[in-house]
Automatic annotation (TrEMBL), chain A:
Subunit record text: Component of the translation initiation factor 2B (eIF2B) complex which is a heterodecamer of two sets of five different subunits: alpha, beta, gamma, delta and epsilon. Subunits alpha, beta and delta comprise a regulatory subcomplex and subunits epsilon and gamma comprise a catalytic subcomplex. Within the complex, the hexameric regulatory complex resides at the center, with the two heterodimeric catalytic subcomplexes bound on opposite sides.
Key word ATP-binding present: no
Protein name: Translation initiation factor eIF2B subunit gamma
Keyword terms of this UniProt record: Cytoplasm, Initiation factor, Protein biosynthesis
Family: Belongs to the eIF-2B gamma/epsilon subunits family.
Pfam families on file: LbH_EIF2B, NTP_transferase
Main subcellular location of this protein, as a coarse class: cytoplasm
Subcellular location: Cytoplasm, Cytosol
Described purpose of this protein according to its UniProt entry: Acts as a component of the translation initiation factor 2B (eIF2B) complex, which catalyzes the exchange of GDP for GTP on the eukaryotic initiation factor 2 (eIF2) complex gamma subunit. Its guanine nucleotide exchange factor activity is repressed when bound to eIF2 complex phosphorylated on the alpha subunit, thereby limiting the amount of methionyl-initiator methionine tRNA available to the ribosome and consequently global translation is repressed.
Chain ranges of the EIF2B subunit epsilon/gamma LbH domain: 358-447
Organism: Hibiscus sabdariffa
TrEMBL record, chain B:
Keywords of the record: Cytoplasm, Initiation factor, Protein biosynthesis
Location within or outside the cell: Cytoplasm, Cytosol
Pfam families: LbH_EIF2B, NTP_transferase, W2
Composition-biased stretches (Acidic residues): 540-549
PROSITE patterns noted in UniProt: W2
Name of the protein in question: Translation initiation factor eIF2B subunit epsilon
InterPro entries hit by this protein: ARM-type_fold, eIF-2B_epsilon_N, eIF2B_epsilon, LbH_EIF2B3/5, NTP_transferase_dom, Nucleotide-diphossugar_trans, Trimer_LpxA-like_sf, W2_domain
Family: Belongs to the eIF-2B gamma/epsilon subunits family.
SMART domains in the record: eIF5C
Subunit structure: Component of the translation initiation factor 2B (eIF2B) complex which is a heterodecamer of two sets of five different subunits: alpha, beta, gamma, delta and epsilon. Subunits alpha, beta and delta comprise a regulatory subcomplex and subunits epsilon and gamma comprise a catalytic subcomplex. Within the complex, the hexameric regulatory complex resides at the center, with the two heterodimeric catalytic subcomplexes bound on opposite sides.
Chain segments carrying region Disordered: 437-459, 519-554
Length: 461, 724
């Protein structure tokens, strides 16, 4: 398909402490007992997008992530691992690996995306319109990851701050305006010139930017070269491209089409435009062509480029793992309502319980639960809507509700764990009560202690 | 399901009953309260101007009648007598089931006044159609009325339904077709509620602003630039009382519609109804006059077309859209082109070419005349060899031989153009002199246009106007009579937009370039935005805190301004300190600020005043500051309850020295000392400030360093105290 995929896997994330650590960087954070990165990679593999660059923050992380990928996807994907310094932003990361990019179009995916939206469809939309950039938008989940739990009671204006304000053309194909809610202080300011060209614009505030973009490589590289202050794809590059779509600066000194394929002939270019128009199902030229024409109908004097949107169908699942709340929600959803994401992967589709669990007598494991390989549960335990990792030892009379327990965790008798995350190698001694807590890797919780809404982590360094 | 259906049908029948009980009423404003048709409207009201040889108001009334309206109240103001006389003599006075009542006013200057007056008359008893007398339409009202009523049942606040229509698709013609201003509307696609209406270039920046709460409330909003407002509104009775309640509402759109949209206390809502196949447009200016005339000739407004509307005088429609009255005297060699209307009793000479034009009744047109895209009203004499392009020629005009009208010319009643005279493009010529008081303020323009002035002038016309004219006759060549109105400043570049003449190419290019400029501004703006965006953390961050901060920052800015204004007023009007304290406290409450903010804001205002009062040297500035501080020490102190607030004052001062009032930078230690002396700042506050600053960046410590001595002295003094 001549698409190169860049997976921005990130590294340590402040939002996710204490869950992430040097040994367990964000890309490898387990979601239903498999690294979050595997969901993206799996989707890409399914869509036959096999030429990947996985960008990871920090050399150490790169080693860990690289080892996992080569172990899991060996021979199935062609993956390069690139390490970039931390805190250079998404645009910075692309800039750093720019010399690796060779294909005509680049698909940039965030490594923390858990979604069933086919990336291939985004790529196809991008190609069909011969767009400079195509962004995937998904509707905001009804009980969204950011909305539920503690932040439930906030008022609408605040809620808006988190989402995007997106302007679409009547056909919902082109992206005319994008702003994150946070940028808007009092009122949204919408550009009139684009509106004039299009005639009508639909303003949606119920869509979110899913951090999956297809870029035309030449455009992306040029923008990154030109604007060396751009840090973020979402906040700088994409809005810039959308803003300047009727007056493309990035392309003003070159022809937009076919310039990178030096062998392409002029005639075939025209054909390509023609074909792309037919594919776009528009017998009349789009507004981009209109507005590039002079009033007297002479040859276009202004360059335009197209910014497209791919809107995921409302039933699809699309959430980013970017907070602890999201981590819990995704774990719950993937084992529950969105369990189709697990199908086709290595594990047995219908039985979420690993091959050799040992359950004590009178122990119940409710639906939407997952129990990793080699874990043992004692007598009279209850597990509801929770994920339990591999080789955990859980004593008797333990209650685990709405929680995520990672690998090699020891839970003593009589513990009650609610809405909490327990990382690997944690030891919970007898009668520990946790509610809304996060326990960092290797932590030992002493017997009988009770915690509520706390973040417990081993003191490092 | 079944039950639901039943109730729906029951409701419909109920509606019909209701319709039967309350005859559908309409208010027709026979005055546009605008000056776009001057100079013609100085002598005749706009609604009586012929549109393809039939007065505009006839189109409106005929449509209202066909749409099932039973009672029309015609509100006349300017030239009310002419309107009343016309209506009395017309067929409308004797229609069965269609009563036309006139309401006369002499002092209304706006649509708002008109509606207030109608409210007082208490003649409207239910939903009504609000329309102005210059609207041409053939839409059916059944659906929009139905929708309106249904909505009213569910939500009593849905008081108005506006009719909109999609305008032509090309971006260039969108606004230029009717010569109206660009219109931006935001509509909720599901409920069709109107959320934003922006018609003037008031926010001429390249942005439209949508309020945040609107976006939060409506997950999907469609912003339209491709719709035209038909100025046909279905209103509920409350609309009239709203006009009475808000006595400052003048303009239907600019004040009323926007007022309702902005006001969220009453929660009144306006909805839109889009028509697709039917026609509706309002004649707002000469350009729309031209466009709509063409639409009528091309029969878009069917059945409201000349041959059907005036059934008596047989008008025949010929090939290529040529309308010809029965007794036209036409020379054999005259050539009548397509889409042309020739009225009764008109004589046309040899080799004359007429195309895309309207020629009224009783006109005499000589030989070798070229008429193209022009509107010639009744009893006009055009002598041999004249050329008219895209002009409007009113009743009784005489064009002497060889006269030329360049595109966009308006000749008002009875003007005489001299031989071989070329009237320059876009001129407006009238027997009446241009009113001298030209005010850009629209409200006053309304006032100008009231019947009073207009009628007075026409009285004058009958009397001594001939004498007046003889002096200035040279303006229109030998034998010409009339004044060429000068285009007043500002409107000059707008003239082509509203004129009958097609927009010249270079203007179109300019229009495009204007857009470009907009765009450039925008990109610049955008860059500024993104520059600030860079400061934001990684995209992982969901940014809700930023949002809060932004809000409060903004609020604080307003608050500070208010406090400053209050303070300045207190200074200039010698308000007592106690009163000033009260006022500031009131502001504090209304903006929900802490007294820390008050202290900061007051101190800021004081220092700003000191900087702004005249001074020549630093020492004078210091004295200014000292004077002001001495005088208002009590005001400031009443907000300084504890050390935090005092520290805030110091921080504020630092900020000012760095930003708005750099002159103070040199005086920082002195002023600090002054504040200490006046017991505004306690030494604890200063010391704590110094402590806090100790750990700051070097750049932040500039002022700490400059006041080091003073701080040192304070410290020593304290130590001594402790020693004691």
């Amino acid at each position: 398909m001549d698409f190169q995929v860049v997976v921005l896997a990130g590294g340590s994330s402040k939002n996710l402490t204490p869950l992430v650590s040097k040994e367990l960087p964000k890309p490898l954070l387990p979601v239903a007992n498999r690294p979050v990165l595997s969901y993206v990679l799996h989707q890409l593999e399914q869509n036959n997008l096999k030429d990947l660059i996985v960008v990871v923050e920090g050399e150490d992380t790169a080693l860990v992530v690289g080892a996992w990928i080569s172990g899991t996807f060996i021979d199935r994907l062609h993956v390069e691992i690139a390490a970039v310094p931390e805190d250079i932003g998404t645009a910075g990361a692309i800039r750093a690996i720019s010399h690796h990019l060779t294909a005509k179009d680049i698909l940039v995916v965030s490594g923390d995306l858990v979604s069933d939206v086919p990336p291939g469809a985004v790529a196809a939309t991008h190609r069909r319109h011969d767009a400079a950039v195509t962004a995937m938008l998904s509707s905001i989940p009804v009980s969204g990851p950011l909305d539920s739990g503690s932040s439930g009671g906030k008022d609408k204006a605040k809620k808006l701050g988190r989402y995007n304000i997106i302007g679409l053309d009547p056909g919902k194909q082109f992206l005319l305006h994008i702003a994150t809610g946070a940028e808007i202080e009092k009122d949204a300011r919408l550009p009139k010139h684009i509106l004039r060209a299009v005639g009508q614009m639909e303003i949606r505030s119920d869509l979110m930017d899913a951090h999956m973009y297809a870029f035309k490589r030449s455009v992306l590289q040029e923008v990154l070269d030109l604007k060396d202050t751009f840090q973020s794809l979402k906040e700088d590059v994409l809005p810039y491209l959308v803003r300047s779509q009727l007056k493309s600066e990035a392309l003003s000194n070159r022809t937009p089409q076919g310039e990178e394929n030096g062998n392409e002939k002029v005639t075939s270019q025209n054909n390509q435009v023609f074909v792309s128009r037919i594919l776009a199902n528009s017998s009349t030229p789009s507004f981009h062509d209109h507005s590039s024409e002079n009033p007297d109908g002479s040859a276009p004097t202004r360059k335009t480029h197209k910014c497209c949107a791919y809107i995921a169908s409302s039933g699809s699942y699309c959430v980013r793992l970017n907070s602890i709340q999201a981590f819990m929600d995704i774990n719950r959803d993937v084992t529950g309502e969105a369990d189709h994401l697990l199908t086709g992967t290595s594990s047995d589709p219908n039985n979420n319980i690993g091959p050799s669990p040992k359950l004590g007598t009178k122990t119940t494991v409710g639906p939407h639960c997952m129990l990793g390989e080699g874990s043992e549960i004692g007598d009279k335990c209850q597990v509801k809507r929770s994920v339990i990792g591999r080789h955990c030892r859980i004593g008797s009379h333990v209650k685990v509700v709405n929680s995520v327990v990672m690998n090699h965790v020891t839970i003593g008798d009589g513990c009650i764990i609610q809405s909490s995350v327990v990382c690997s190698n944690v030891q919970l001694q007898e009668r520990v009560v946790l509610k809304d807590c996060q326990v960092g890797a290797g932590f030992v919780v002493t017997a009988g202690s009770e915690y509520k809404a706390e973040s417990l982590a081993r003191k490092e360094k | 399901m079944g039950a639901q259906k039943k109730s729906a049908t029951a409701r419909v029948s109920e509606d019909q009953e209701e319709l039967a009980r309350n005859p559908l009423q309409a208010i027709l404003l026979a005055d546009s309260f605008a000056t776009t048709f001057r100079p013609i409207t100085l002598e005749r009201p706009k609604v009586l101007l012929p549109l393809v040889n039939i007065p505009m108001i006839d189109y409106t009334l005929a449509w209202l009648e066909s749409a099932g309206v039973e009672e029309v109240f015609v509100f006349c103001c300017a030239h009310s007598k002419q309107v009343i006389d016309y209506l009395e003599s017309s067929r409308w006075s004797s229609q069965p089931n269609f009563s036309v009542t006139t309401i006369e006013s002499h002092n209304s200057i706006s649509a708002g006044d008109a509606l207030r007056l109608i409210y007082e008359r208490n003649v409207i008893h239910g939903d009504f159609v609000l329309i102005s007398g210059d609207t041409v339409s053939n839409m059916s009202l059944t659906q929009v009325l139905q929708e309106h009523k249904e909505r009213r049942k569910k939500d009593a606040n849905a008081i108005m339904t506006m009719v909109v229509k999609k305008s032509k698709p090309s971006p260039i013609t969108q606004q230029s077709r009717l010569g109206t201003d660009e219109l931006f509307m935001a509509i909720n696609p599901v409920t069709k509620q109107l959320l934003c209406y922006e018609d003037k270039a008031e926010h001429s920046k390249g942005f439209i602003s949508l309020d945040k709460t609107l976006i939060a409330d409506n997950p999907s909003i469609i912003l339209h630039n491709d719709k035209q407002d038909c100025y046909i509104d279905v209103c509920s009775q409350e609309v009239l009382s709203l006009f009475t309640d808000n006595f400052d509402y003048q303009h239907l759109r600019r004040h009323f519609v926007k007022g309702l949209l902005v006001d969220d206390i009453m929660g009144y809502k306006i909805f839109t109804h889009e028509i697709h196949s039917s026609y509706a447009a309002r004649i707002d200016n000469f350009r729309s006059y031209d466009t709509i005339s063409k639409d009528i000739i091309q029969r878009w407004t069917y059945p409201f077309v000349p041959d059907i509307l005036c059934g008596s005088s047989a008008i025949k429609v010929e090939r290529q859209g040529t309308y010809r009255a029965s007794d036209v005297t036409l020379s054999r060699s005259a050539h009548i082109g397509s889409f042309t209307f020739i009225g009764q009793g008109t004589k046309i000479g040899n080799d004359t070419k007429i195309s895309h034009s309207v020629v009224g009744e009783g006109c005499t047109i000589g030989s070798n005349v070229t008429i193209e895209g022009s509107y010639i009203w009744n009893n006009v004499t055009i002598e041999d060899g004249c050329q008219l392009r895209h002009a409007i020629v009113c009743d009784g005009v005489i064009m002497k031989s060889g006269a030329v009208l360049q595109p966009g010319v308006i000749l008002s009643f009875k003007v005489v153009v001299g031989q071989q005279f070329v009237v320059p493009a876009y001129s407006k010529v009238s027997l009446l002199q241009q009113p001298t008081q030209q005010d850009s303020d629209e409200e006053l323009e309304y006032a100008d246009n009231t019947s009073g002035t207009g009628e007075l002038r026409s009285d004058k016309l009958n009397g001594d106007i001939a004498a007046d004219l003889s002096e200035t006759a040279y303006e229109l060549g030998t034998g010409g009579v009339g004044y060429i109105w000068s285009v007043f400043e500002g409107a000059q570049d707008e003239e082509w937009k509203h004129s009958v003449a097609p927009i010249p190419k270079d203007k179109l290019v300019k229009l495009m370039l204007d857009k470009d400029e907009d765009e450039e501004q925008l990109t610049q703006d955008g860059n500024v935005l993104s520059a600030s965006g860079e400061l934001k953390a990684d995209s992982d961050d969901n940014g809700s805190e930023d949002d809060d901060n932004a809000d409060s920052r903004d609020d604080y800015g307003f608050f500070e301004k208010e406090v400053e204004a209050t303070f300045l007023r207190a200074v200039h009007e010698n308000v007592k300190v106690d009163h000033a304290v009260l006022e500031v406290n009131a502001l504090r409450l209304s903006y929900n600020m802490a007294s820390v903010d008050c202290a900061g804001a007051i101190f800021y205002s004081m220092m700003k005043l000191a900087v702004e009062s005249p001074h020549h040297s630093a020492s004078e500035l210091h004295r200014n500051a000292a004077d002001i501080i001495t005088k208002w020490v009590k005001l400031l102190k009443s907000f300084l309850h504890d050390i935090d607030e005092e520290i805030e004052v110091i921080l504020k001062f630092e900020e000012m020295c760095l930003e708005s009032a750099k002159e103070f930078a040199a005086l920082f230690p002195q002023v600090l000392h002054l504040l200490y002396d006046k017991e505004i700042l306690q030494e604890d506050a200063i010391l704590r400030w110094a402590d806090e600053k100790e750990g700051a960046d070097e750049s932040d410590k500039v002022f700490l360093k400059s006041s080091e001595k003073f701080v040192q002295w304070l410290k020593e003094a304290e130590e001594e105290d402790e020693d004691d």
